[in-house]
User: What shape does this take?
Amino acid sequence: MQLADKVFVVTGGGNGMGREVVLQLITRGARVAAVDLNGAGLAETVTLAGAAEGRLTTHALNVSDRKAVLALPDAVIKAHGQVDGLFNVAGIIQPFVKINELDFDVIERVLNVNFWGVVNMTKAFLPHLLARPESGLLNVSSMGGFLPVPGQAAYGASKAAVKLFTEALFAETQGTPLKVTVIFPGGVGTNITANSGVDASKLEAAAAAGGGKVPKTTSPQDAGRQIIEAMEKGVFRATIGGDARFMDRMARLSPRRATLLIANQMKALLG
Ligand SMILES: NC(=O)c1ccc[n+]([C@@H]2O[C@H](COP(=O)([O-])OP(=O)(O)OC[C@H]3O[C@@H](n4cnc5c(N)ncnc54)[C@H](O)[C@@H]3O)[C@@H](O)[C@H]2O)c1
Assistant: This one.
């Protein structure tokens, strides 16, 4: 789909990959409604965009707040006249602990934001997207959504749910003007750990114990570009980064070996 002069809603627009998607869409001549829980983050995105008045609007809300999300299409259409695409990027990780030490309220919070947030946004905008001559809906899952990462069980389950929900939507919308895409990023160099309120000291200690090797990650700018291109091309699925591409193949060839490989890498962190 052509991006210029189209209207896109982007969740997670206040930081990381979502912010990059917002900035690059604006650069490419689109209009954007940026959504985020973090109002200060959204304000910073606006400053960075330096967009002409009205081309970029911000909407501070929690994607797991269904009432607020269901009121969003009216606000976006009032500001921009239409909606041609939705990027569901917002998400959080969980503390790096095993299921036995993971509290129910943490599991529920991760599922509420990552899964129910995507469901709320999808249900809110789907009728509008289906009514357009061409439209796109893209959900960000994760490498952790097809590959179990010890210490991220609830996160992985939420992202696996996003994967299946999006793939089912892809199947259901064949023959309609809507193109549906699911994205599986590997490691991306954002501040998701701190933004999710997760203590990073254990991660740093584990990296130091492993010889201080920090895994190579994709930059948020590059990830944002790839996310936009996936919507532009209307692809079914895309991985981001060599790590996600490699594990995507390995997890299908030998799920057990792939699981044990990651389990081994996480040993230093979880004990
Ligand atoms: N960073 C990675 O390595 C990585 C890897 C795979 C997948 N992902 C996924 O990519 C997406 C973007 O992650 P990122 O690394 O850019 O993170 P980030 O923390 O930089 O950005 C996420 C944004 O989402 C917002 N957000 C969080 N909870 C929200 C809520 N309830 N309602 C509205 N906004 C909310 C945050 O305020 C933040 O601005 C997430 O879904 C994440 O799970 C990230």
Q: What stands out?
A: The pocket of nicotinamide-adenine-dinucleotide is lined by residues 11-12, 14-18, 36-38, 41, 62-64, 89-92, 113, 117, 140, 142-143, 185, 187-188, 190-192, 195 (CB under 6 Å). The chain has one domain: 7-270. The first strand starts at residue 7 and ends at 11. The CA atoms of residues 206 and 269 lie 5 Å apart.
